[in-house]
Amino acid sequence: MDRIRGALSGLVSDGSITEEQADEVAGTLSEAGIGGHGGHGGGRLDLSAAAATLRMTEDELRAALAADGATLATVAEDQGVDLVTALTDAAEQRIADAVTDGRLTQEQADERLAGLAERISERVDSTDLGHRGGGPRPEGGSAD
Fold it and tell me: CB under 8 Å, gap of 24 or more: what pairs does 61-70 form?
């Protein structure tokens, strides 16, 4: 987790997030396996980690996402945070830690790292957050 905190240090240095928020995000990302393959195609985002990175509560983030056409990317832009970079850096560090700890081989890590930023960007840009276990869609949202 210390390496994830290190990956977030630039965001702390430039004032995008506080050290406490970096600690919270690092812990959440480490536990959630953001960007991993975890049997669900990889690239999943934990809404709580995104909310912490955006300096919002999960409820505030859900409310912001309820706006017509809102995405994590648009909410992050409104908050002045580069969410894709923060989540990608943290996921890369988590994967590196897994190799160091012997939980992944370098080959497995390379597979997970391939296209990681693109997968995270796709999720951040998506208006379909159905990966959250079928949670409510914004009013008027469709299932297609």
Answer: 65/129, 65/138, 66/138, 66/139, 67/138, 68/138, 68/140, 69/127, 70/127, 70/138
